[in-house]
Amino acid sequence: MAKSDLIGGSIWEEYSQKVQDLMNNPRNQGELTEEDAKRLGGELIVADFGAESCGDAVRLYWIVDPKTDKILDAKFKSFGCGTAIASSDTMVELCKGKTVDEAVKITNIDVEKAMRDEPDTPAVPPQKMHCSVMAYDVIKKAASLYKGVDMESFEEEIIVCECARVSLSTIKEVIKLNDLKTVEEITDYTKAGAFCKSCIRPGGHEEREYYLVDILEQTRKEMEEEKLKEQADKQASGEEVPFKEMTMVQKIKAIDKVIDENIRQYLIMDGGNMEILDVKENGEYTDVYIRYLGACSGCASSSTGTLYAIESTLKQKLDPNIRVLPI
Amino acid sequence: MMMKVYLDNNATTMVDPEVKAAMDPYVCEIYGNPNSLHDFGTATHPALRKAMDQMYEALGARDEDDIVVTSCATESNNWVLKSVWLDLIQNGEKDHIITTEVEHPSVTAVCRWLESRGVRVTYLPVNADGIVEAHTVRDFITDKTALVSVMWANNETGAVFPIEQIAEVCKEKGVLLHTDGVQAVGKIAVNVTKAGVDFMSFSAHKFHGPKGVGGLYIRGGRSLTSLLHGGEQMGGRRSGTLNVPGIVGMGKAMELANYYLRFEEQHVRRLRDKLEDAILQIPDTYSVGPRDNRTPNTVLVSVRGVEGEAMLWDLNRAGIAASTGSACASEDLEANPIMIAVGADNELAHTAVRLSLSRFTTEAEIDYTIDVFKKAVERLRAISSTYAYTPKKEGA
Which ipTM was obtained for this model? Predict the structure, then answer.
């Protein structure tokens, strides 16, 4: 939130001039018929995508030359807001003259970029990116009809955020590499979830197969497991793990080991002993709660010299941020 | 010829020039603080008293009632809901609030927030006419219900709720009743005493008054913890230096609105009906809610095969301002909740367009709008993938 956000704008102010012109006068709106196909010597493809009840629906007409796979002519019809009309129109423009295989490579981002006035200024506001996704999906639908295959076969990887075209593998990689902990961070790093927001969590505009909240939770879990495994492997191979990176169980074991090897024998010699009650993370510190036993309890040195000896041994052997607290 | 036509009067209205004239002296000339002892301050008092008289008169309030001036109806709605929570729910006496599914966000969002604090909230659905009936309210009141909050008239459909009957139910059950009167005041006769409500919110800019000033009617004897503590303004019920020009303007605007009620009922209604009839002559168009139970200035129409925002775009290109609560125009891309609430079929949920007139709307403007609307439907249906379009034959 800042100065520019306090007085809301109208989304219409964020449409590029190209978008506005296409909303007013789409070039490729209309239908193609079997007669048109016959006249051009091609095959007619009619693909529908979306539904009126969702607020977006588009129908794409292609006439494809069966010998060359070239799209000889294309038109669209659309139920949707102005940006859906403009996106569909641009998509059709981009299809024309291409082969079907080339056309499936057109993404919603290509459509949006083609509608920009300035190369670096988005053609539509974030929540309208979704409209160009429809335009992209309908191409795949048309191609699948032409080739007699499933739509999914055109997608090489799993796309989580369709608006920004961010894949599942990219999101997982970014979470792991940058140790991301929140969905907002994922959006900042990848733009996934920045547009129509459907992919963030269930209950948005559109039902999705994958949601960022679940991916984050799953990936964090995987990271924890990987970390544990790594440490266990290190220990097994005799490699030393820094105290800070240890799990709580490992920390307690390590503290116990240092005390057994360096402290306990001296306490026993004096007729005393000690036990570890608890170990707690306290910000940057690790607090070790101990209780003296036998002669140690009540000994004057137990809160001065002995305590200092225990603490400094742990600090030296394990971590300078260990504090020992006798109870 | 391109005209400029404002048909979004449920969003806000033009300040009546008479209102502006009444406010004018209180901006640069009589600008004192009403709480001051000196003449600059006291010079504002006659106008403030007059404005209060105008409001009490227009709303039918009694002397023992309070009409507290606030900054807007959002403040008034927040005040009632949050203070009922503080006064009756936090102490464990009650735990429940009843409202409807179609309230303004300044009621709904507060209710959602109260739910996060442990309050039980019942959101009553509206019937096919877009209203909640009194017997439905009765069915949901329990011993633990602290408040019923039901709007007087709906902002999108104009549907008028049976506030008097709901008030009877609440009185019988001993439950407080708040009504958001924002869309009723100035459009239909509003008499708070006759209606028997405990609280009513209103806002000046919806009836040709200035923005930034509204009010809350509080029935005599009803306690309500203050939200704004500070000076002793408004009898200590709502602190903050009085918005003198705003109050003067609101008083004048309310007086005028009351004066023009018959005009609203006859002239504005006739123009609205003319517009609605013309739109309904286009095949596959619908309007929401029966006309005789709507505010006279409002119609929510649905044009099959044409998305609402696309329609607004075409109207705006021709200089006509309208609105849609649906889909793409808002941040969350969702269907218009009122369309879902009144049970319109799913295909129509994204097609709603609201046209709201005022007493300044002219016949020529309506004729122009009818013409533009028809052309827009023609153009957009030709593009539409979900409407089987038959182009008009030349000369047909």
Answer: 0.84
